[in-house]
Design goal:
Number of domains: 3
Largest sheet: 8 strands, mixed
Number of helices: 22
CATH class of the largest domain: Alpha Beta
Strand content: 5-15%
Number of strands: 10
Helix content: 55-70%
Strand order of the largest sheet: 1-2-3-4-5-6-7-8
CATH topology of the largest domain: Rossmann fold
CATH architecture of the largest domain: 3-Layer(aba) Sandwich
Length: about 550
């Protein structure tokens, strides 16, 4: 399906003078500002302008697109510069501030359209950790970038005449709307349209609803079907929901949004998964005080940088090692952060309750999943003596069971040889279990075989589940189950033949794995049985 790059290529020969600016043009200009035009576009306090054609050509002199993915923002100037529709438009008033010590990061430029109209474009969030930190700060304060956006827009309106369009993607959409709300009343009527492309709203405790009501009719809020960022602090306006070529969080990139002609491909609903997660986040934030949100933001992002990472890509490349550093750093965080994390899991559970967990637990599959979670808890609770605890617990349970069955067999009214057979069997089982319990130092050896059987059975059960539900299980869930089967098989082999490798640290890992697997299998079972309706009920609307 076509995207914004296809749009630039296909409609590149149709000037804005012949076909006025539209929603896809807005996205293209919101993505163009992600590229670094420092030293190319005249600054905010400078006179003059430069055509997009020349600006893009200069930018590409030092930007290598060799091997770049289709979502790289560099493709926007690559195709936009040579096009008739955009190439002759002019750029001016470049603003680029990156001062992490003052918590200030903002980038913007102004596009001069035919007829004297302007499009003011604000850059969204980059992959830098400090940039994301500032996004989270909107949950408890008006950030400096928002105030700087107001000054910038006022500057442009006082410097130039004509109608003004303002927009941005992600945080850029938030800055565009905030600036339009707070500019001087005497120039606000020149704002013709505001575009927020998957941009978050405003903290309810801080938003000036009177100012929002005055301009909300000019706002077009565009979100993909899986929207998280754009639904933070949801605003009381209709959302234009658009299709995307990507999955889940990757839909946040405007480079993936589907385009048809001069408009986006519309959808009526966000995905059920996105709606559920947004309910969890709304509930979580709604139950947190401003002080807790501030403490959480500080602790979380300080933890991210504690391993030396500068961007989210650094954390992604470092894999589990950097995530481990984050977790360890967060463990020593303020009590307010711990309270907020507890509230998050409470919100998650309230959403989880809605999908009928108890009904799933009543099934054979659900009982297996509950057993795995319980077994994982035992591994975590007693990592040094886990095999003794498990083996002793099983032996004691079997001994009690055999003792009860032995008494019942003796009281039964049945043929003598049948009664004798039952009693002999239970006496043998009871004696064997007592023997195991009396030789506690040998219990771990017996337990190794027992635990390995559990992992082998888990591997088989996971494969059987995929085979049984192959017609309705999603590819992602199928892959997850197969992964569980492979990992479980390997753990079973190690447990049986190399038990010495399962030390204290490995027991913690195995316990965490069992709990995670139990939860994942339970969720897959619930979602597979429930299915996804064609038109799930949710509170989101579509515009137009």
């Amino acid at each position: 399906m076509a995207n914004v790059i296809n749009y630039i290529k296909w409609r590149g020969d149709l000037t804005i003078g012949r076909a006025p600016i539209n929603e896809v043009d807005n996205l293209a200009l919101s993505l163009l500002v992600y590229n670094d035009f420092s030293g190319i576009v005249p600054g905010k306090d400078e006179e003059g302008s430069i055509s997009i054609k020349k600006a893009c050509a200069k930018f590409l002199e030092s930007y290598d697109l060799e091997g770049a993915p289709k979502t790289d923002f560099g493709w926007v100037p690559y195709y936009m510069g040579p096009s008739k529709r955009f190439g002759e438009l002019r750029l001016s008033d470049y603003l680029d501030i990156k001062d992490t010590e003052r918590d200030m990061m903002i980038t913007a430029f102004t596009v001069h359209l035919p007829g004297g109209a302007l499009y003011v474009s604000f850059r969204g969030t980059t992959m830098e950790i400090d940039d994301w930190r500032m996004d989270f700060q909107i949950s408890f304060e008006e950030i400096k970038a928002q105030k700087a956006a107001v000054k910038y827009l006022n500057h442009i309106l006082n410097k130039y005449s004509g109608d003004v369009y303002v927009g941005g993607h992600s945080k850029g959409g938030n800055l565009a709307l905030y600036a339009a709300m707070h500019i001087s009343d005497d120039v606000q009527n020149r704002i013709k349209h505001i575009y927020s492309n998957d941009g978050p709203g405003f903290c309810p405790e801080l938003i000036d609803m009177k100012k929002f009501e005055a301009i909300k009719w000019k706002l077009t809020h565009i979100i993909p079907t899986y929207s998280i960022v754009g639904m933070l602090f949801e605003l009381p306006v209709p959302h234009k929901i658009v299709a995307s070529d990507a999955t889940k969080l990757l839909q946040h990139s405007g480079m993936t949004w589907q385009v048809e002609g001069d408009h986006f491909v519309k959808r009526k609903h966000v995905t059920e998964e996105s709606a559920g997660l947004n309910r969890v986040i709304d509930d979580w934030i709604g139950n947190a005080t401003m002080e807790q949100r501030k403490a959480f933001t500080k602790d979380m992002f300080d933890s991210m940088k504690s391993g030396g990472a500068v961007s989210l890509e650094d954390i992604s490349k470092s894999g589990i090692h950097d995530f481990g550093t984050i977790i360890l750093s967060a463990a020593g965080s303020e009590s307010k952060t711990k309270i907020l994390l507890g509230k998050f899991f409470g919100s998650l559970w309230r959403e989880f309750e809605k999908i009928k967990v108890l009904d799933a637990l009543k099934t054979q599959q659900g009982l297996i999943d509950a057993f795995l979670i319980l077994l994982g808890i035992i591994f975590l609770a007693t990592p040094q003596d886990v095999y003794t605890v498990i083996g002793g617990g099983v032996a004691l349970s079997c001994a009690i069971w055999s003792g009860v069955r032995l008494v019942k067999a003796g009281l039964r009214d049945e043929k003598a040889f049948i009664k004798r057979g039952r009693m002999v069997f239970h006496i043998f089982v009871l004696s064997f279990m007592v023997f195991i319990l009396s030789n506690i130092e040998r219990i771990p050896k017996w337990t190794n075989a027992l635990v390995s059987i559990v992992f082998f059975s888990l591997a088989v059960a996971s494969v059987q589940f995929v085979i049984k539900h192959k017609e309705k299980i999603k590819k992602g869930a199928s892959f997850g189950m197969i992964t569980i089967a492979v990992v479980s098989l390997n753990i079973g082999i190690i447990t049986l033949f190399m038990p010495q490798r399962l030390n204290y640290g490995k027991s913690i890992t195995v316990g965490s794995y069992l709990i995670l697997v139990g939860i994942v299998r339970l969720l897959i079972q619930i979602l597979t049985k429930r299915g996804v309706p064609d038109h799930p009920a949710n509170p989101y609307e579509i515009e137009g």
